[in-house]
Amino acid sequence: MFITFEGIDGCGKSTQADLLVRRLKKETFGTRPILWTREPGGWEGGAWIRERILKDRFLHPMSELFLFLVDRCEHVRREILPVLENGGIVVCERYTDSTLAYQSWGRGIQPERIESLFEWCAFPQPDLTFWLDLPVKEAMERVASRGGRDRFESEGYAFLEKVRTGFSSLAAREPERILRAEASEEAQALSSKLFSLLEVSRSR
């Protein structure tokens, strides 16, 4: 099973991914290999690409897009596919929905062009995606409180609102795969809800 977490920075993707993986390891999934990873940079050698994307504020939007795709090609081939092909579970923070939300809704690149590249690269589609939705103001406050901002947060409120709209549009388009969750909820309570949604999804 391939599970992804999506949402703007500050929504709690890492916290919820951590809690879900811990729960999966305790449940009947324990005999299966479980990979917890992230994009960009979730493979050996990906750190340079991650640093380049997140720090270079002068990147052209198309260069930014292709760097994400280069990263994903290696990430999928080296990390994600081996686990899935071995009957395991992959939990990934950010994936193709982030690329669409940020590079299409945020940057203005036509989504059809981006999705045609996904198809050409033969990226596997997630079985289930948790979209952790959080108002932009609250997300920016969380990011500021931990003392870090990358180039996307530096774009400001209007840019992140476009990205949030992108996630909303994607969820409306694929409501069975992309499940929206209120990210402002207490972490443990939210984790329990997400695990229940996972169990319902698996029983379909």
Itemize the secondary structure elements and their pairings.
Layout: E1 2-6, H1 13-26, E2 34-38, H2 46-55, H3 61-85, E3 89-93, H4 96-106, H5 111-121, E4 128-133, H6 136-145, H7 157-173, E5 178-182, H8 187-203
Parallel strand pairs: 1-3, 1-4, 2-3, 4-5
Describe this entry's structure for a reader:
With 204 residues, this protein is α/β, with parallel strands linked by helices. The chain has a single domain, classed as 3-Layer(aba) Sandwich (Rossmann fold). The mean pLDDT is 91. α4 runs antiparallel to α5. Strands 2-3-1-4-5 form a five-stranded parallel beta sheet, sandwiched between helices.
Key words describing this protein structure:
single chain, 204 residues, alpha/beta, Rossmann fold, 5-stranded parallel beta sheet, 5 strands
Order of helices and strands: EHEHHEHHEHHEH
CATH topology: Rossmann fold
Uncertain segments of ≥5 residues (pLDDT<50)? Answer: none
Q: What is the name of the CATH architecture?
A: 3-Layer(aba) Sandwich
- Highest-level CATH class: Alpha Beta
Shape summary: globular
Count of extended strands: 5
Strand content: 5-15%
Counting DSSP H or I runs of 4 or more residues, the number of helices is 8
Overall pLDDT confidence = 91
Residues in helix, %: 55-70%
Radius of gyration: 16 Å
Terminal Cα span = 13 Å
**Number of separate domains:** 1
Biggest sheet strand line-up: 2-3-1-4-5
CATH superfamily: P-loop containing nucleotide triphosphate hydrolases
Q: Structural class, judged by helices and strands?
A: alpha/beta
Report on the biggest sheet.
Answer: 5 strands, parallel
